[in-house]
Specification:
Rossmann fold; Adenine-n6-DNA-methyltransferase TaqI, Chain A, domain 2; 7-stranded mixed beta sheet; 5-stranded mixed beta sheet; 15 helices; binds S-adenosylmethionine
Amino acid sequence: MDSLEYHAEQLDETFSNLKINTKDSVDSDVLSGSLCSTKLAKAVRNSIPLADLKSKGVFFTGDQLAHEAATSIAQDLDLTSRVLDPACGSGNLLLAITKYLPICSSLRETLITWGQVLYGFEIDSGFVKLAKKRIVLEAINRGAGIDISSLKEAEALLLNIKRRNGLTKTISADIFTHIIMNPPYNSRANTENPLWQKKCLVNSAAIFCYKYLSNCKEGTKFVAILPEVLRSGNRYVNWRAYISSKISGSIELRGRFDTKANVDIFLLSGIASSDTEEEVIWNKHLQDEDSEVLENHFNVSVGPLVAYRDEKKGVKAPFIYPKNIEPWCKVSPRLEYRLFSGKLIKPPFVVIRRTSSPRDKVRAVASVITGKEKVAVENHFIVCVPKTGKVSDCMKLMEACKQSSTNDYLNDYIRCRHLTVSSIKSMPIYMR
Ligand SMILES: C[S@@+](CC[C@H](N)C(=O)[O-])C[C@H]1O[C@@H](n2cnc3c(N)ncnc32)[C@H](O)[C@@H]1O
């Protein structure tokens, strides 16, 4: 038996050890232990290889994050609310929502009531079962008197949590008052979404948000836990504009999802509205249109040479890549030459290393390249050529890269582990 099934059986066993009508003797430590999401996440990781979890987008929402997401939309929740999680996994977000629902006189009555409020879709039937079992145990943990003899019977009362593809065309979101999601982050080929070309690979999370914000009703409370690439990636410019036109809301950066999923996340929350009063500020540094940005003074591009791909033919030129150029210095590269038939760059210019993590002390590590010979620049560098052709402008840029304000800007703009041309182009810089 795999450890996921074992975990489900443990929940069954926990339930069967609880005696009917023994509300007072329920051992809340045992119940809380059974509901612990860390234990469950461990069981899932033991059952399913990490590569499969990544390709299917299966990562559980930690309790604290689930609580924060639920809190951001649940203040007005009542028994007439209809709350959907369209990719509910083992139900952590729905569990967090139940904290805002009352306990009725018995378990049956509580589950009938909760069952009308909570909607969850999930493609994996094993997770659907887990989600239901956990919600039943949570109701008991909160004090619902047990008047049902089997966990299966209790689960059946949560009739709107079901195995279903959350991206099915026929799902209409307009009955929901609240939508909460931590959708999968895997890539999928775009089939019909107008924001991207057909067959182009798109993060599933972008598709989930698009689907539900495009057809929910005005006033629906919405919160989504999303990967950083949607906030800063070039491929999602149109997506951001579309989402901004559909929601009046805000974002909060949250750092790394968890220790296993190597991805930074943010929370998007707000109220669905086509007349958006509060535009989503994806990046607060870009809002000030008057500030001077780097692309006013430099032409920015990625180094044209791809070492493993480009044949050694063409013109013999100095060849630079991050390992043969010292950071934070001004150099005339003469150590290595190679043949290259692509575009050579005429000095002076600045190179900035593309590999860069929010955990680095300095995000944009720069060097100034001078000399008379045109240079073959490898693609691990971003190249900034001053429009004035002056070395002094290059030195100003290198100094600006060291500033904490530049770090703050880049950390806010891009949490991915590499810098993009657009993140460098819009970097605030003072050249006078
Ligand atoms: C990030 S996990 C959600 C975690 C969930 N909040 C929890 O804590 O258990 C994303 C979930 O979406 C499910 N999923 C992936 N594609 C789906 C689809 N098209 N429709 C519904 N669920 C889907 C995955 O099986 C996975 O359980």
